[in-house]
Amino acid sequence: MNELIKLSAAELVEKLKSSEISSVEITQAHLDRIEATDGQTLDSADRSAGKDGLNAFLHTSAQQALQVAEEVDRARAAGEELPELAGVPIAIKDLIVTKGQPTTAASRMLEGWMSPYDGTVTQKVRAARMPILGKTNLDEFAMGSSTEHSAFGVTRNPWALDRIPGGSGGGSAVAVSAFQAPLALGTDTGGSIRQPAAVTGSVGVKPTYGSISRYGVIAMASSLDQVGPCTRTVLDAALLHEVVGGYDPKDSTSLNEPVGPYAAQAREGATEGGLKGLRVGIIKELNGDGFQAGVNARFNESIDLLKSAGAEIVEVSLPSVKEALGAYYLIMSSEVSSNLAKYDGVRFGLRKLPEEGPVTIERVMSATRAAGFGDEAKRRIILGTYALSAGYYDAYYGSAQKVRTLIQRDYAAAFEKCDVLVSPTAPTTAYKLGEKTEGDPMAMYLGDIATVPTNLAGVPSISIPAGLADEDGLPVGIQFTAPAHEDARLYRVGAGLEALLNNKWGAPLWAQMPDTESLIRDFDFGGAK
Amino acid sequence: MSEEILSFEEAMEKYDPVLGFEVHVELNTKTKMFDDAPNEFGDTPNTNITPVSLGLPGVLPVVNGKAVESAIKLGLALGCDIAEVSHFARKNYFYPDTPKNFQTSQFDEPIAENGSIDIELEDGTVFTVDIERAHMEEDAGKLNHMGGSTGRIQGAEFSLVDYNRAGVPLIEIVTRPIVGAGERAPELARAYVAAIREIVKNLGISDAKMERGNVRCDANVSLMPKGTTEFGTRTETKNVNSLRSVERAVRYEIQRHAAVLDSGQKIVQETRMWHEDTRETTAGRPKSDADDYRYFPEPDLVPVVTDSEWIERLRAELPEPPAERRRRLKADWGYSDEEFRDVVNAGAMDAIEETVAAGASPAVARKWWMGEIARIAKVREVDLAETGATAQTVVELNQLIEQKKINDKIARQVLEFVIAGEGSPAEIVEKRNLAVVSDDGALTAAIDDALAAMPDVADKIRGGKVQAAGAIVGQVMKATRGQADAGRVRELILEKLGVEG
Amino acid sequence: MSDITRETVAHLAELAHIEMTDAELEALASELGVIVESVASVSNAVSDDIPATSHPIPLKNVFREDVVGETLTAEEALSGAPDEADGKFKVPAILEES
């Protein structure tokens, strides 16, 4: 294994700038790592691959990535002015459209589809001259919390291969935590960046709604979806946010305000005394009860560290948060039912003819949608159709939108008393693959309890590693939330706690992660799902 | 398989019709409602589209600000209240001409509500039609049904979809139920749609060509037995693509409803399709989702919020309303009711207004536009404006006549040459040497020739039969190829023969 | 108790254009029942005087200039089409043969 891959993006930037290493070397090292650990044959369209590895990638684009890397190296040698992250490779969640590479949303519906256009964040990544390593796995159309709902196989947690990597963005979280990519982009509708970050020991940010353009991000729930960085360090997340953030006239909900300064705030927060005087609000409703003991222990430890660094801890209440999950599932599924209507076998993607009976367009649409969508997608489409249907709208969708108002008011009141809110990111560490896919669908939904309120309110959140739970040795995440538009504050606070924790551990948390290649060698893939 | 219908007269004896209209107006913005694809008619299929108009995965809509202003202007012209806050909503239904399988429209918060317009029928009777709302939405793509015998959806083996029209900005204008039109209902239907067409054209927000689908009417008809006040079950007739069709379709549906009700059966609430060829309606496709569109606020778009400053700025930009304009012009021009109605029906109002503005008298303008130019337009089957004649043409022709440079007959020839693109009337008269021969010397020679050729006529004139001079005048006109001033010729003849005129 | 029956799901599946087997309908009816019961409390948590929030960050009047931008070629537009003819998307008959 090439030790290059353990460097953070910020460290890589330094070495690139000093010409100590080349982008081609960096990119090749990550491609080698993907080949060694992901079960992929690079640039292969064979979907039977990926079974004997992490399966974080649905598609790799090694040649394209190396070509960009070469161009960057040449430009640097010629003394050209380059963007900050030029030459640093990145992985992109396969929910974001990319011209020249497949985009599947991990659905049979889009298998083989090539977008004729680039998403805005894709364009920004290209403009930043970052080699795109490939597209990462997810729950189909980002619906799920375990990446088990991918049509193309599960992604495995590098801390324990029989465990979920979180979801929906398990692929992006695993790509960074297993050193397959220094940076990745994810999307977060109810925790899809943060919960995978928590269970893989990495960093994930859901920015303020509108901070990063959604144009070219396959919509799950439009009023909740947000693109964000998946990284191993808070500073890297800040650097990536600065690349992909900013106003986009193609997204009507995009915020017309300046980007950053995120990296500067992250650097500031990590300095001695960076957290002094910070008022941190512990959310009464998201503390202790129903959370795994090891999660609570690591959470409390972090709170003590914050206190010792001069932060002031206060308790705040978000009384309506108990209705957040219900409101979230109603709003999300309603928007899903409408957003996923376009997948009908007419303009792109799968078309399936009915197995018997007349071939009319209605029946072709219904057969296509039956064959193209997995169970979770169907469940949410049907729930959303129900919530919006005549006679139920007011009770369900209408009420959920009102709960949203109450939650926003709760956040506004809480931020009167503190600068940031804090809670565990997820109630448990990574559970076993298959543990929650059978039977009661609410069992998995309950894992989103701490993450969905911020999507409903549109406020930004970051999850950073808080250590390992004593009972299972698996990563625990801690989540900070700031008022809307105050993303910079999150980077400051996140980097502050990250520095305190790294100092306490003597190294980043990932140093305790088992060797991936040995894990894979010793794992019985045939026995697991 | 025609359905039973009652005679219109019998239907009217037994029932009172209730009408309602949903008129869709396609705006003439440069781009579509929610994306920057060109809003163009009839180009190569599937080229006037962006990923957004095609509803590809990941796309987002952005509202065309010009279209919003057009909608506000139309709302104001219809006397509506403009909403302070108005939202877009998704109307969910599956159909292959609808790229996202939902239409982005407006539901409970339309941009304009509660208006009314006065509709004047040909005999001057005025009906007030109340407008419930006008809202913004997007058009669907175009389906061609293939493999069937008629291009109709029935019997087609497959269909082809062109999404060029998908996303074209529409404003849908919905009336409240119109009660009390009685036997004038078909006529009112036509006049209402004509009025909407005129208003949007006058506002400059639509090309307003019904044959191109710029203005489309869905006509709702129901009947209630005379003396009752409870509305009957209604049908909605679509595919009514001309003013004539609107009138006929409403009339037909009244007659069909009456026959159904008379036979003791119930009207099925459904969409009917109008067929101009057979002049009948047939049951349209059953709308599978018709009862449940699952409207909800469009999460990808933000609200339109108006303030009085914005609305007043747009109000100030409104042109004079067509009805008011007509009243003003009729009074200014001094035409009789009948004359003015003919002018309106001929579509000559704009041309006459311009011609008067350019200096001609209303009578002269009318003479030309309703006379020779109308005749040419009719022969060529084009609109008046499309003949190539302009206000300036008429003004110049009239000046040439008044200056006695040409006479009426020559003027008509000159007009033909103008239309053929030979230049302005003056240029043509000059170039083709068409000016009236007023040189007395030339005329005297021609008169001498004529008198010599017809000595018996000359004698009659000398003998006092002055009216016989006509034959000589005719001969002179012939010799001068009509370019002589006939009055002057006559004077010279009488002078020469020493007779008092 | 929720009112979600097999027939309810069958109707919803028809609205959503998803063909479903009897087994799927049965399974979904019971799953949806559970979900709907657990989310139903939202309607008790709110009252008439609370406004609805449809956008997390309130914005207004986001408009585009009426200027034509870049379009797709017909080839690009049809590149993902399951079936096409004459530069158009080809779809099966809309009505059933009668």
From TrEMBL, chain A:
Lineage: superkingdom: Bacteria
Tell me the InterPro entries matching this sequence.
Amidase (IPR000120), Amidase_CS (IPR020556), Amidase_dom (IPR023631), AS_sf (IPR036928), GatA (IPR004412)
Name of protein: Glutamyl-tRNA(Gln) amidotransferase subunit A
Which reaction does this enzyme catalyse, per its entry? L-glutamyl-tRNA(Gln) + L-glutamine + ATP + H2O = L-glutaminyl-tRNA(Gln) + L-glutamate + ADP + phosphate + H(+)
**Species annotation:** Rothia amarae
Keyword check for Translocase: no
Q: How does it assemble?
A: Heterotrimer of A, B and C subunits.
- Domain named Amidase: residues: 51-490
Keyword Protein biosynthesis part of the UniProt annotation:
yes
Q: What is its EC number?
A: 6.3.5.7
Can you supply one Gene Ontology CC term for this chain's record? glutamyl-tRNA(Gln) amidotransferase complex
Automatic annotation (TrEMBL), chain B:
What is the top-level taxon of the source organism? Bacteria
Query: Which InterPro entries does the record match to this protein?
Result: Asn/Gln-tRNA_amidoTrfase_suB/E (IPR017959), Asn/Gln-tRNA_Trfase_suB/E_cat (IPR006075), Asn/Gln_amidotransferase (IPR018027), Asn/Gln_tRNA_amidoTrase-B-like (IPR003789), GatB (IPR004413), GatB_Yqey_C_2 (IPR023168), Gln-tRNA_amidoTrfase_suB_CS (IPR017958), Gln_synth/guanido_kin_cat_dom (IPR014746)
Gene3D superfamilies named among the record's database cross-references: 1.10.10.410
Cite the entry's keywords alphabetically.
ATP-binding, Ligase, Nucleotide-binding, Protein biosynthesis, Transferase
Molecular function GO terms recorded: ATP binding; glutaminyl-tRNA synthase (glutamine-hydrolyzing) activity; transferase activity
Q: Name one GO biological process term.
A: glutaminyl-tRNAGln biosynthesis via transamidation
Q: Which residues form the Asn/Gln amidotransferase domain?
A: 350-497
Reported EC number(s) for this entry are 6.3.5.-
Among Pfam families, the record links this protein to: GatB_N, GatB_Yqey
Which reaction is this enzyme known to catalyze?
Answer: L-glutamyl-tRNA(Gln) + L-glutamine + ATP + H2O = L-glutaminyl-tRNA(Gln) + L-glutamate + ADP + phosphate + H(+); L-aspartyl-tRNA(Asn) + L-glutamine + ATP + H2O = L-asparaginyl-tRNA(Asn) + L-glutamate + ADP + phosphate + 2 H(+)
Q: Where are the transmembrane segments?
A: none
Q: Which family does it belong to?
A: Belongs to the GatB/GatE family. GatB subfamily.
The entry's function note states: Allows the formation of correctly charged Asn-tRNA(Asn) or Gln-tRNA(Gln) through the transamidation of misacylated Asp-tRNA(Asn) or Glu-tRNA(Gln) in organisms which lack either or both of asparaginyl-tRNA or glutaminyl-tRNA synthetases. The reaction takes place in the presence of glutamine and ATP through an activated phospho-Asp-tRNA(Asn) or phospho-Glu-tRNA(Gln).
Quaternary assembly = Heterotrimer of A, B and C subunits.
What name appears for this protein in its UniProt entry? Aspartyl/glutamyl-tRNA(Asn/Gln) amidotransferase subunit B
Q: Which organism is it from?
A: Rothia amarae
UniProtKB/TrEMBL annotation, chain C:
Q: Which InterPro entries match?
A: Asp/Glu-ADT_sf_sub_c, GatC
EC number(s) from the headed UniProt entry: 6.3.5.-
The protein's annotated catalytic reaction(s) are: L-aspartyl-tRNA(Asn) + L-glutamine + ATP + H2O = L-asparaginyl-tRNA(Asn) + L-glutamate + ADP + phosphate + 2 H(+); L-glutamyl-tRNA(Gln) + L-glutamine + ATP + H2O = L-glutaminyl-tRNA(Gln) + L-glutamate + ADP + phosphate + H(+)
User: Which class of enzymes does this protein belong to?
Assistant: ligase
Q: For this chain's UniProt record, which GO biological process terms are given?
A: regulation of translational fidelity; translation
Please provide, alphabetically and separated by semicolons, the GO molecular function terms listed in this UniProt record.
Answer: ATP binding; glutaminyl-tRNA synthase (glutamine-hydrolyzing) activity; transferase activity
* The keyword Transmembrane helix is assigned to this record: no
Q: Which Pfam families match?
A: GatC
Record key words, sorted: ATP-binding, Ligase, Nucleotide-binding, Protein biosynthesis, Transferase
Assembly behavior: Heterotrimer of A, B and C subunits.
Q: What does this protein do?
A: Allows the formation of correctly charged Asn-tRNA(Asn) or Gln-tRNA(Gln) through the transamidation of misacylated Asp-tRNA(Asn) or Glu-tRNA(Gln) in organisms which lack either or both of asparaginyl-tRNA or glutaminyl-tRNA synthetases. The reaction takes place in the presence of glutamine and ATP through an activated phospho-Asp-tRNA(Asn) or phospho-Glu-tRNA(Gln).
Which protein family is it in?
Answer: Belongs to the GatC family.
**Protein name, entry field:** Aspartyl/glutamyl-tRNA(Asn/Gln) amidotransferase subunit C
